[in-house]
């Protein structure tokens, strides 16, 4: 029931529910070339000069940090951050949420490459809180928390809970690092400037392809000496490329528009969840959404859900989801819905009718 030529064609001929249209490589690079012409962009060389320094300074000011370093990937950025803070404190174990990207998707690089240990802090399905930190008996060299928590449906702590977490880390003298892969959506969620959200985090990482639509790239921000040491580790890890110009330019030219779109994306996420709220056999989580990313849980097994999805695409011309991880209970599935320009083009009531058709078709299949 996986990817087949027929399904590829069906998706191509449907209106996609989630995310943003992806430009072709030629379109993206033409836009980048025009941006270079319009702004007289010069080459960067091994992370110095040209557009890279100006962009680092712009993002550092936006997020309230003294310094920043553009890196090829978030995996590199966060591994470096944990190594630096653990070296600084002399404690080789750092804390992180059980669903952290470092734990689930990076093959434990923090241990195999950087010689660090990790302690999982807090429950899988909820944000990390101050009480989870104060209950840890052993010392930590650093503490990493994610805003929002992708694997838990894009959840955020309340503002009061976030401030209490910062205070708990400071009281325990644990350097606090922000996994801000999707930080860009938090300004709308908290209705606060990004620099106010990051205040109290000793360092921060942000991504430029998630919700921004740039080529691969990340930025690590913090004190000047921390960032200077990060540049040394970037070279040690093979990340100090001769030039990162295309990656930096696409991030620079797309960031502001992405930030402007976040309030509308959050509003549409909440409207969608409200439209789907009473459908039997379907549940959105969290309800209401904290950000423009949330999960949809289906009381359907994978094979039935895929067959019903294909029916909706053929009959209604809407592609509701692609991959389906297992849900919280046997015979259930779930998917992540990230509101983007695709989503904004669809009326919430039209989306509701499509899910009604999905659930009705699933009943027919079961009979």
What's the short version?
The protein contains 15 helices and 12 strands.
Characterise this structure:
The protein has 367 residues and is α/β, with parallel strands linked by helices. The chain has two domains: 5-22 and 260-366, Aspartate Aminotransferase, domain 1, CATH 3.90.1150.10; 41-243, Type I PLP-dependent aspartate aminotransferase-like (Major domain) (Aspartate Aminotransferase, domain 2), CATH 3.40.640. The protein is 47% helix and 14% strand. The chain contains 15 helices and twelve strands. It has helices at residues 5-12, 25-39, 50-63, 74-89, 101-104, 109-112, 130-134, 159-171, 186-190, 194-198, 224-236, 245-276, 302-316, 341-344, 348-366; strands at 15-16, 67-71, 93-96, 117-120, 142-146, 176-180, 203-207, 218-222, 282-285, 293-298, 318-319, 333-338. Strand 9 (282-285) and strand 10 (293-298) form a beta hairpin. Helix 2 (25-39) crosses helix 12, helix 4 crosses helix 11 and helix 12 crosses helix 15. The two termini are 19 Å apart. The mean pLDDT is 96.
Give Rg in angstroms: 22 Å
Q: Secondary-structure element order, as H and E?
A: HEHHEHEHHEHEHEHHEEHHEEHEEHH
CATH superfamily of the largest domain: Type I PLP-dependent aspartate aminotransferase-like (Major domain)
CATH class of the largest domain: Alpha Beta
**What strand order characterises the main sheet?**
2-8-7-6-5-3-4
């Amino acid at each position: 029931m996986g990817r087949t030529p027929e399904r590829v064609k069906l998706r191509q001929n449907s209106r996609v529910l989630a995310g943003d249209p992806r430009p072709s490589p030629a379109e993206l690079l033409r836009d980048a070339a025009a941006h270079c012409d319009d702004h007289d962009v010069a080459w960067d060389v091994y992370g110095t000069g040209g557009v890279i320094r100006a962009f680092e300074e712009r993002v550092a000011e936006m997020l309230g940090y003294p310094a920043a370093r553009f890196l090829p990937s978030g995996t590199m950025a966060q591994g470096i951050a944990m190594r630096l803070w653990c070296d600084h404190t002399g404690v080789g174990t750092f804390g992180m949420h059980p669903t952290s990207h470092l734990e689930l998707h990076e093959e434990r690089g923090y241990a195999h490459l950087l010689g660090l240990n990790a302690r999982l802090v807090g429950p899988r399905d909820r944000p990390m809180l101050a009480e989870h930190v104060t209950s840890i008996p052993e010392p930590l060299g650093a503490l990493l928390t994610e805003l929002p928590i992708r694997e838990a449906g894009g959840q955020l702590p309340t503002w009061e809970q976030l401030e209490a977490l910062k205070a708990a880390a400071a009281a325990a003298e644990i350097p606090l690092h922000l996994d801000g892969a999707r930080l860009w959506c938090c300004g709308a969620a908290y209705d606060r400037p990004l620099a106010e959200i990051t205040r109290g985090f000793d360092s921060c990482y942000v991504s430029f392809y998630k919700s921004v639509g740039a080529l691969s790239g990340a930025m690590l921000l913090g004190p000047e000496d921390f960032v200077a040491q990060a540049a040394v580790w970037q070279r040690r890890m093979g990340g100090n490329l001769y030039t990162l110009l295309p990656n930096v330019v696409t991030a620079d030219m797309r960031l502001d528009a992405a930030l402007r779109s976040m309030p509308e994306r959050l509003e549409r996420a909440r409207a969608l969840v409200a439209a789907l709220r009473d459908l039997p056999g379907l549940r959105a989580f969290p309800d209401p959404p904290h950000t423009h990313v949330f999960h949809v849980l289906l009381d359907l097994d994978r094979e039935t859900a895929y067959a019903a999805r294909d029916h909706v695409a053929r009959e209604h011309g809407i592609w509701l989801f692609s991959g389906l991880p297992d849900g919280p209970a046997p015979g259930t599935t779930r998917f992540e819905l990230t509101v983007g320009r695709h989503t904004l083009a669809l009326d919430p009531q039209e989306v509701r009718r499509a899910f009604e058709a999905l659930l009705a078709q699933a009943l027919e299949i079961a009979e």
